[in-house]
Structure formats: C-alpha cells, structure tokens
Amino acid sequence: MVQIVDARNPLFYRSIDLDAYAKEGETPRRTLLIVNKSDFLDDRQRTAWGDHFKKENIDFVFFSAKEAQDEIDEEAKKLRQEQRNAESHDQYDEAKPAGAPQVVEAEAVVAKKETSPYPVLSRVELLDFVTKIATDVLDEVGVRVKDKGLIKFGMVGFPNVGKSSVINALLGASTYSHKTQRVAVGATPGKTKHFQTMILSDKIMLCDCPGLVFPSFVNSKAEMYCCGVLPLSQLRDHVSPCQLLCHRIPKRVFERTYGIKIPISKTAKETDPVGIYALLESYARNRGYTTTGKGGPDTSRAARDILRHYVNGRLLYCHPPPDVTDPTIFDIHELAKAQFPDLVEPETTEDEVNEEARASTEPNVDEELDFDTTVEDKRAVSKRLKKHGRKGRKGRDKNPYEDSDFPGGAAGVHINSGGKKKNRRP
C-alpha cells in the first residue's frame, strides 16, 4: 500500500490508522509513503522532514510528479521535433549530436541531488525503487496464481495530492502522446471517479483509486479548503480559510506577488498578520472585481482567487515537523526574504500607504474646492454641485409647459396640469 501525501503538510494527509490496518492481519502489507510535491521544500526543510520520518520508522521517498512530468514532456517534445526535422530533410543523423549534451547535463543534476541526505527522486530512481520492493515481496510471498505473478501497488490518499500524476510519471506517459496509457488528472479534487488498474511491468500493477478523506476531529473545514481537499466552487464562507492564509503568508509576500498595497493600522508591526478584508478589498480593486448593485469590491471572488493560488503553491507555506530543532527553517518572514532577495522596507510611512489605498475608493469633496475659501463659499459650491441632482416627487415641476406655446393648447386640451383633463373633445 502506497500513501501519497503533500510535502507542504505531510501529517495532515497521512493516515496513521490506515497504515496500522494494512500491517495487521494474517497477510500484512508493506507500506510506503511517497511525499509528492517535494519541489516546494528546500534542502533544509526536506532534511527536517526526513529525520522525522526516519525517527518514526516510516519507509518514505521524496518525489515531484510535476518535475518528472515536465521532463517527460520535454523529451517527447524534442523527439517529436527531431522526427519532423528528419522527415523534412530526410536525414536521420542530424538529431544525434543534440543528444550528447543532454547526458552530461542529466549526470550533473543527479550528482547535485546526491549531495542532499534526502534527495528528490527522479522518475527512473522511483521506478527502480518500486521494482526493488516488488522483487523483495515476490521473494517473501512467492508467485500467486490469482494475481498472475503481479505485485499490486495501491495508491491511496486525500484528493488532489497527485495520485494520478505519480502514476502517469511512472508510466512515462507524455501529454503530447496519444498512444501511451494514461490516467486523467485535474486541478479540481475528485477527478478520479472509479477504481482503475495500470500494468507498469511484468511484475508491477498500479491501482489508482478515488481520493479518500479520512475522518479526523482535529482538522477544520477551513483547513480542508486550504489544503485543496474540498473544491473551492463549493466555498460559502470565505472568512475562515482566509484567516488561516493571513496568519501564514506575510504582508510583503502578498504585496510583491500581486502588486498591491495593503492598508495597515498605525500601531501594526511588519510581522503582524494581514487584515482579511484589507487584503481582499485591495486585491479586488486591483483586479477590478466589483459586485452588482452598489459596485463595491467583490471580496468573495477575490478570496477564491487567493485560495486557489495558495492551493497551487503560488503562495507557499510549508508546515514544520513536530520535532523540528531549528524553527527558523520554516519561519515565514525569513523565507520571504529568501524568496525576494531585494525585499526592503518601503520608504513611505504607514499613513501614506493607508491614504494611497483609500484614495481609489473614497471620493474627496475638497478636491473640487479651494482650501483657502471660507466655509460659506464651500457651502455655496456644494449647493451648486447638487443643483442637478435627483429630485423627489415634491420637487418636480407640476406644469412644465405653462409658459410655452404648445400647439395642443389651441385644441382646447389642457395638458399643463395633472389629474382629470378638462374640455375633452366629444
């Protein structure tokens, strides 16, 4: 049994009870933990999590299905281009010199990864690791007729952790090829609807199943939205998930990522969490998201965008293991400085930032007035500005054509007054 978890919060996605259930019984199963999306972790964070898993006696590997899929697509794209060039020029040897630098580059990458105590495995390395497990199991159990000599690897985990993406990476299925076997993937949770099997080799069968949400009394519904377990299209209350984001992402990261200015109070510090509505309103105004009716900022739509960016990893936050020795490895403010090396404190004051953020929404009546004028002059100007405003029923002119020479008056029809008309023509 293979549990696939997200590297940003492995303990949230790992089910300890399922792991214990697989190991008990007459025929205990071997378990493996694949920490997917490991490209979100740096070397120090990966080392901290690797030490934690090793301390808990958990068989694990770090893997990135996205990086593996990108390599497969790049190789397929190059091969496709080489075939087109060979067909057009009828020279098949032209593609050979282009392959030599790729071998040197691949060896350099592998050598660089080996320097880390817990490297992110490539597709070939993960395939060799899985094959070794299958060989060990066959040596222990032997070949069973009902399984046709195949070792089944069941891929289980929460929705949207990348189970199908890992299977596609192991199969070597490219998005450019339509002949290879491939399972459907998607950003929305619940893409896999039914159980399906894929033959990887003469020894290995991969089983892909829909995402399983394991019951837990610790995790809230807001946390499940932030982790991508629940689809954002079903989001009704956006305040609770955004509260978690504001405590995990620094203010400067929001501003640099979206190019916005978030107003803060005079007593607030740089390390304080961002205000929820200050963030959502600033983002909505910057993107032009408005509500119908009064035309205010659409905070609900802005919240969905920001939560989607958090789930996809554009806004990155990685949870630390419970036994981490150096908390600065996962400190959000230190990581923000590493993410944006040129991140410096702005020269403008907090009052200037707040005034700049409010300038686009609050109309200033004094902009049309001269500040040297008296109060009476301001009242006169404001009264003149309201001259053409909307009038009520009492302010309407009951007889607008009283002084005009309307030709209808000659016919004996009194059209200048309301109510019952007099002198009607028989």
TrEMBL record:
InterPro entries: GNL1-like, GTP-bd, P-loop_NTPase. Residues 76-100, 342-426 are annotated as: Disordered. Residues 153-213 form the G domain. The keyword Hydrolase applies. Residues 381-396 have a biased composition (Basic residues). This is G domain-containing protein. The keyword Metal-binding does not apply. It comes from the Eukaryota. GO terms for molecular function: GTP binding; GTPase activity. Residues 76-96 have a biased composition (Basic and acidic residues). One of its GO terms (cellular component) is cytosol. Keywords: Cytoplasm, GTP-binding, Hydrolase, Nucleotide-binding. Residues 344-354, 364-374 have a biased composition (Acidic residues).
